[in-house]
Amino acid sequence: VWTVPVDRAEPARRLTVHPGYDRPVQFSPDGKSLLFASNRLGRVDAWVMPADGGAPTLLTHFSGGSVPQGWSHDGRRVLVAATRELQPFGPALYTVAAAERSGRPRPVLATSRTLSGQLSPDGKSLLFARGSSDWPRRGYRGDASADLYLHPLGTK
Predict the structure, then answer these.
(1) Which residue from 51, 94, 97, 113 lies 20 to 30 Å from 134 (Cα-Cα)?
(2) Residues whose CB falls within 8 Å of the CB of residue 122, separated by 6 or more in sequence, listed in order
(3) In this structure, is the dihedral angle defined by the CA atoms of residues 58, 59, 63 and 67, taken in order, positive or negative?
């Protein structure tokens, strides 16, 4: 993970150094923390670290791994896509506390073939993509696009 000033007045600065792979990084709503996925422990999990550098903190430790999707509107929780239970057709969406290992994951949505999700800025809705992964099937020539759904939170 690197930072580069927008005005380029200073050179790029490296924030993480390890042999693993860090994936797309997102600033927290207040800009003080960074959220990213990393495979530094062997599987992909969600990590958070101070935006100005420092030690990364592991947020998830699920046997099937997890990929962070984004922050809650207040920055206190993180949305992750994870395969935790018996999910034969892709991951479910959970929120986890943005602080180090505090509290249990909260299920947000468990439906088959969930590809990704994002919480709304006001925290009242979840936008998620759902589709198939038919494109790697040998000889398949059909559509592989996902559908988007808007799900109000706090409802069943």
Answers:
(1) 94
(2) 73
(3) negative
